[in-house]
Amino acid sequence: MTVNLAWDDPLLPLRLAHSVQDVASALGLEPGKFFYVVKNADNGRYYKQFQIPKKKGGMRDISKPVRGLALAQDRFAAILLRKYEPKQFVKGYVKGQSFLTNAQYHERQRWVLNIDIKDFFPSIGFARVRGLFLSNYFGFNERVATILARITTFQDGLPQGASTSPVIANIIAHNLDKRLVEIAIKERLRYTRYADDITFSSSQKVIPSSVIKSWEPLNGTRTIVLGNGITDAFRSARFEVNEKKTRILFPSERQEVTGLIVNRKANVWRSDISLLRMKLHSARVHGASKAAKLWLKTSENPIHFWQHIEGWLSYILQVRGPNDAVVAKLCKMAVLSGLKGSEWIERYADMVREFDVFLSHASEDKPKIRKLKDRLELLGLKVFFDESSISWGDSIVDKINHGLLKSSYFVPFLSDTFSIKGWTNKELNSAISLNINRKGRILPICDADFSVEENYPLLNETLYRKWPLAAADEDAFLDSVADEILKKVLLSNAKPTDLSG
Questions:
Q1: Phi first, then psi: what are they for 8, rounded to 5°?
Q2: What is the mean pLDDT of the chain?
Q3: How far is CA 358 from CA 347, 377, 428, in A?
Q4: d(CA 100, CA 477)
Q5: Distance from CA of residue 353 to its chain's centroid?
């Protein structure tokens, strides 16, 4: 075996190594302690084995390395990551990629094929890892390859919880990727792999026989016979297809990729949101221990339950984004149900809107604006209106700032008196600042003889409504404006829950 050595090669110290002492030196570890770690790497002494809740329910087995072995793996993982250059179709365990970017790549396709690699980490054992380290890609000698394979495998597989496992798995899966990408290019398909989840998709109606020979029935749960191209690729790469998780999905069905619906925009399932609300309701009514027993099945530990909830909230946040009302409301529900100690969840819980509309006006214009307030409340909208929303003894500043932050829409009544008052202009400036991240939330109404262009040029490009000059026209105007605001509120409340699942 011939290995080209370069002085900027991150693997060079290990390629020149010949002993435990050399490997320890390359990893920046004490030789004596590292020798003991290598000797005991596979007897369980350096692993903490436990279970964590799965997002979909049940528990996941974790083998987490501890002490010296964890340090050795972390040092080696850093070297591996400097060496490994992931291809664009690899979406799992890669910086800048995620289950979300994986799903987004397959949005709006005619068909989506999901294939799962059976026992991905456990199937990559000691001999296979050692063989990888002996290959030209690494170029380690037999003794070094054996040492590194010992510290990166456990119970003849890649341990779920070791920092080295993801990158080693991705490197070993490269041969499978290469064969499957060749098929995708030839047949003009989209291809990605997220850890053990493989996805093909296409905007074409025809499904190539090299990918799928047949499926039965046409609708519902199907039995799928994969094409020779796919099965040969798996066989040559020494992986096995998990047939129970192989599925083909069409536009009339809910197309799923790495847990997300991709028929239109990648999104969470509506049923997942509903289920999370049910779990939180159980915790609020019966307590976290009983909720854990009911929903996790394998654990009555309240800590496990709250870990499960926090994992789900983090997942939904990543998919739907930081300004999403559903995320805020779920976080609020979690806090009310007893979740404590999570700063980010408490921060999002505080974002929940308490008012649909904030009516900003000068006191001289109150008789007009009170009419609008009454119309809005008759329609069932929650309105921040100073004389009803601020009580005797309240801090006016705190209440108004709270109202601005907690209102979905800001409706200023622009008039000559409004424009010359300091407080109304502060409210407007605050609303404009908030509107930078929440477009379309300022709905100006101006007095009949007021010029927006002369007084508020920043708002002149915003469509506004003009209060009628004739009193006889007020009722029709108020009905029209109130109805329009109601439609906007209903639409904004509907969008966050318009889930494609």
A1: -95, 10
A2: 88
A3: 22, 12, 11
A4: 46
A5: 22
